[in-house]
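3.2 Worked example (two chains)
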Amino acid sequence: MASVASPVIFKEFCPLYYLLNAIPTKVQKGFRSIVVYLTALDTNGDYIAVGSSIGMLYLYCRHLNQMKKYNFEGKCESITFVKLLSCFDDLVAVGTASGRVAVFQLVSSLPGRNKQLRRFDVAGIHKSSITALAWSPNGMKLFSGDDKGKIVYSALDLDQGICDSSLVLEEPSSIVQLDYNQKVLLVSTLQRTLLFYTEEKSVKQVGTQPRK
């Protein structure tokens, strides 16, 4: 007997006021009042990460119902991309409009996990706005792309507190998406999509016609 398909239930989801109310709409800089715009977003089962135009990362913990704030030292600039990862430790990578990239290793209350907030900076290879970030599943590799077509590979050693970065690929147009799995980096630009094999350092284009 054929099984009867269960009916589709439509749900209406309301705005996350508990999250939005924890983020200021304006901040005071000297005598000026600056409007705060939300510029980047990523989510997973544990966190909601929101980047802002004032260089502040707002990280909402879904289990504890707590909001925490992280920022870059120095110049206040817009965050353009955020990428969360839950592996042995919780990590969040952040990219800015000037090409700065930082990784925050979050504090965890679980036994054996990280007990002190740590930050890793990707050396200043990017000189323009970060448009894409991609993690390896174990958190040891981070790939970052910018709007000038540069892709940087960063190797992280969380135990030693080391982040080594190098330029691995340069495209003639802006990077719009990155995804990594099994030693293959999927790259999409404004002109084409390609597979970059990280071990062989070789490139294979997906399709034959350039994007218009």
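3.2.1 Second chain
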Amino acid sequence: MAYPAQLGFQDAASPIMEELMYFHDHTLMIVFLISSLVLYIISLMLTTELTHTSTMDAQEVETVWTILPAIILILIALPSLRILYMMDEITTPSLTLKTMGHQWYWSYEYTDYESLCFDSYMTPPLELDPGELRLLEVDNRVVLPTEMSIRMLISSEDVLHSWTVPSLGVKTDAIPGRLNQATFMTSRPGIYYGQCSEICGANHSFMPIVLEL
């Protein structure tokens, strides 16, 4: 769960989100080193006299500033591709949950069980119990097992929505007429909050998601 003035990500609750956070730190360090080098060069150019202007036309310098960025891009691309393949990997799911986006609520169906479906609406602020979170609580939470592979089948009945739970690293568009799939596995029990992250209309900000594991 996010807290006020938070600058980083929410705590990871799935292996995929942990990998995404590691990749974020890895890439951010590369960006920091590049920015520091550029700032250092700019400061040198502004504070020192250029006594060797021919250096900038040397073949060796051009070779370095061509090969070095290519190496940096490879260092970023390889971990990124690895995570992409991990996110698309299809394993035998222990449970399949189908969710449909509506204006403006979610409906869920446990496809492994007959006639087990329900709608999930945001709890109005005047009906919140003490300690519950405004604009994030729902009347019917999704209950899922922990440390088991879960398959989400996501679609929409009307307009574009996006089923997003940041702690799990899951963000999949709900598109009318198309059935998208996402898989995840939680590493610890808890209550995880998400929202529709597609601007889907007037009540876009009133489509929370609550998972209880």
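3.3 Remarks
The mean pLDDT is 90.
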